[in-house]
Design brief:
heterodimer; A: about 250 residues; Rossmann fold; 2 domains; six-stranded mixed sheet; five-stranded antiparallel sheet; 8 helices; about 35% helix; B: about 525 residues; mainly alpha; MetI-like fold; about 0% strand
Chain lengths: ~250, ~525
């Protein structure tokens, strides 16, 4: 199996604060990984560094076997990394309609106007927004905005999808709906996924593997069942939380 | 809050609405057959043609300034280069000066008798002179003087952006597309508001066309009405077209600024990180070029001052006008800052009630200074109020009417960045109004208070049209003195006074920059 993402020795500073220290992480093609950890543990910084929105001070990031950053240098521009990111606050463009969002991200792919229109409308259909193509973000409900952000991220067919806690503020029914939709789209698209979340429920529903960050370092990397059974004092609380989430899902 | 709205409304009524009402009432004061009807200027073919030409010139200047300011504002907000910042400071300098001084520097400093004349030959001088002394020269000066206003508004809009949508754009399409399709698009309302202001200020400009010999509508209004020998009703009929345009401009600006789109709160966001948007070499080059163009009139004035004999002899007599400038400045700045603080707080905390005070105050800014001045004369030129009309008070009232909106709007932006809950906590703790203001409300906007004070003082220093219309005999400011001296004093002496004015503006500009860039220590 080839690797979608390979990170080695990654160190990132924000100001004078070391946010990530000697991080190593690999994700196989088509693998779904949840990145968990307390607030301030460096989850968002790691995702932004993979995307190229944040520069590291050491280490390498490779995507699909191609090195995209090394040390302080970005070797491949963010827009050429074949990744997509769903932002925490969605980062929709208020002046664009739903279909314009899709056409904008498809604009870099040298498609004919007709083909781009077709793909954009199909992408909206895929997330159940086919009838809201002409609506701007302010005219969409919270759930529809989530779907639009997901459609925008998936339309360019990324090799790796990064999600930075996009479901953090959703109520439970909507969260279950979105995680289901995400899983469906991942199965259909076959892309790899790194999902930043602090919610064990999200992690269990969207990922097959969990990576736990604490104080700028990876402290656990394995399956959820292993984390639930792990009796290390530092991991026990998150294991217990996962167990509770599993019971909720089972119920 | 209620008191803030009331005070703000009263100030706007006294300084802006009452003069306009007095102007309208002059129509009925004549009672003779010679009274000009209010629509006289709109029906007279000569005046109508002049109004159309002036409107077209102002619209062209506004459009050019809008486009240039949009590009430069985006550039300034998205580069981290000391060259770019230096260019931006030089680009901003013309905004701090009366446009008249820029014309003086370009026409008399660089062209006539200046380097163009000396090194490029008299034939080219004739061409340059011909271009400058016409509508093209007038528009060029206005664009040079007022583009920085658009740049500043766009800068504020970009700095107030949530960076995430820009990152999303850069991630999917790269920096250049994100810059144009996301950042510049987001800044369009600010650029449009800036262009509208440039249009209105150009339409009302009096001094530059006077120097360049260009006939404009505002210029003829000033020439006809400022000598006070006009027919009853003529004041209204000649001012009416400009009042109507100002009303339309005010409505446009209020519409563009819905939801704070033009001047967003600092709490809204902190703008995109420049690193994300590429190296910025083109943007830095644009800023440096704009800076060099902005500095050209200053070089011209320095050339003028250095070329003549005894340039310093004008300084002594001018000290009196410097003193008067400072008196007017202090007299208007202190109440403007106080009203700005109270009114801006009320606008921020209860924006639903600001309709009248904000609309009226904005009208004060969009009205040509000469119209506001004629209104003030109509209101206060009577025996019982001669103490106002004959002294500094009428000048202070005019300046307050002109800049009331800016002071309040700036404080509104500052207060929007402070959570209202901080004041509500003090209210719940049963603190009285003075204690709440001194201990809770005012301290977070200390820097804003200094910045607004410096900015208002700077605007008063550069004001020419309002003061020129209403200043009492012997009450000329430095800017007015330079204007009157230009016709009958050696160019070197005029240029020296202009450089003195530039020095004063630079001091205030530095105070403003210090106020907005000083780091928090706590």
């Amino acid at each position: 199996m080839t690797t979608s993402l390979a990170i080695t020795g990654l160190r990132v500073e924000l100001g004078r604060h070391m946010v990530l220290d000697d991080i190593g992480l690999t994700i196989a093609d088509g693998e779904r990984v949840a990145l968990m950890g307390a607030s301030g543990s460096g989850k968002t910084t790691l995702v932004r560094t993979i995307a190229g929105l944040q520069l590291a001070i050491a280490g390498t990031v490779a995507l699909g076997g191609r090195k995209v950053s090394e040390g302080r240098h970005s070797l491949v521009a963010p827009s050429r990394r074949r990744i997509s990111l769903v932002f925490q606050d969605l980062a929709l463009w208020p002046h664009m309609t739903a279909v314009q969002h899709l056409l904008f991200v498809l604009g870099g792919q040298s498609l004919s106007r007709r083909k781009a229109d077709e793909l954009a409308l199909a992408a909206l259909d895929d997330v159940g927004l086919g009838d809201r193509a002409g609506s701007r973000p302010a005219e969409l409900s919270g759930g529809e905005r989530q779907r639009l952000a997901l459609a925008r991220a998936l339309a360019p067919r990324p090799e790796l999808l990064l999600l930075d806690e996009p479901f953090a503020s959703l109520d439970l029914p909507l969260k279950l709906e979105m995680t289901k939709l995400l899983r469906q789209r991942q199965q259909a698209g076959g892309f790899s996924m790194l999902h930043v979340t602090h919610d064990p429920l999200d992690a269990l529903r969207t990922a097959s593997r969990i990576v736990l960050l604490e104080e700028a370092a990876v402290v656990f990397d394995g399956r959820a069942s292993e984390l639930i059974r792990d009796e290390t004092p530092a991991l026990a609380p998150i294991g217990a939380a996962l167990r509770e989430a599993l019971e909720v899902l089972t119920d | 809050m209620r008191a803030g709205h009331v005070l703000s409304g009263l100030a706007a009524a006294l300084c802006i609405i009452a003069p306009l009402v007095a102007l309208a009432l002059m129509q009925s004061a004549g009672g003779s057959a010679e009274v000009a009807p209010p629509w006289f200027a709109l029906t007279d073919p000569v005046l109508r043609r002049l109004l159309a030409a002036s409107t077209a010139q102002a619209a062209i200047a506004g459009a050019i300034a809008g486009v240039c300011g949009l590009g430069l504002g985006v550039a300034l907000a998205t580069v981290r280069s000391s060259w770019g910042r230096a260019g931006a400071v030089l680009h901003m300098l013309p905004l701090c000066l009366p446009p008249y001084l820029l014309a003086l520097g370009l026409v008399h400093g660089l062209a006539r008798g200046g380097p163009v004349d000396r090194y490029l030959g008299s034939s080219l001088r004739v061409v340059v002179d011909g271009v400058l002394h016409g509508p093209g020269g007038f528009m060029m000066i206005q664009v040079l003087a007022l583009t920085p206003l658009v740049t500043l508004l766009v800068l504020a809009a970009v700095r107030g952006m949530d960076p995430a949508p820009v990152e999303a754009g850069a991630l999917s399409r790269g920096p250049s597309v994100a810059l144009v399709r996301i950042v510049a698009r987001h800044s369009l309302p600010a650029a449009a508001a800036g262009a509208t202001l440039v249009f209105l200020l150009t339409l009302g400009e009096v001094a530059v066309p006077m120097l360049l010999g260009v006939q404009t509508y505002a210029g003829t209004v000033f020439a006809r009405l400022a000598d006070l020998s006009f027919l009853p009703g003529e004041a209204l009929s000649r001012s009416l077209p400009m009042v109507l345009v100002a009303l339309a401009g005010t409505a446009t600006l209020l519409r563009l600024d819905r939801g704070g789109a033009v001047l967003p709160s600092a709490r809204a966001g902190h703008g995109p990180a420049p690193e994300l948007l590429g190296s910025g070499a083109i943007r830095v080059t644009a800023l440096v070029t704009a800076g060099l163009i902005g500095a050209a009139p200053l070089v011209g004035l320095a050339w003028m001052a250095a070329s003549g004999s005894d340039p310093l002899s004008a300084l002594g007599p001018a000290l009196e006008s410097v003193g008067r400038t400072l008196v007017y400045m202090a007299g208007a700045t202190v109440p403007l800052v106080a009203l700005g603080l109270l009114g801006g707080h009320a606008w921020a905390r209860d924006p639903a009630k600001q309709t009248f005070s904000a609309g009226a105050a904005l009208l004060g800014l969009t009205l040509p200074g000469v119209v506001l001045g004629i209104g003030l004369i109509a209101l206060w030129n009577r025996p019982s109020t001669s103490w106002i009309y004959g002294g500094s008070a009428v000048v202070v009232l005019g300046l307050m009417g002109r800049y009331l909106y800016l002071a309040q709007r700036a404080f509104k932006v500052a207060f929007n960045a402070v959570p209202a809950a901080e004041e509500e906590a003090a209210l719940v703790a049963r603190k009285g109004v003075p204690a709440r203001w001194l201990r809770v409300t005012a301290p977070p906007v200390r820097r804003a208070t200094l910045a607004v004070g410096a900015a208002v003082a700077l605007l008063i220093l550069r004001d020419l049209d309002t003061i020129l219309t209403v200043y009492p005999p012997g009450g000329a400011t430095l800017a007015v003195r330079i204007l009157t001296l230009e016709a009958n004093a050696p160019p070197a002496q005029t240029a020296t006074l202009a450089l003195l004015q530039i020095g004063l503006s630079a001091l205030l500009g530095l105070a403003f920059l210090a106020a907005i860039t000083r780091r928090r220590t706590a």
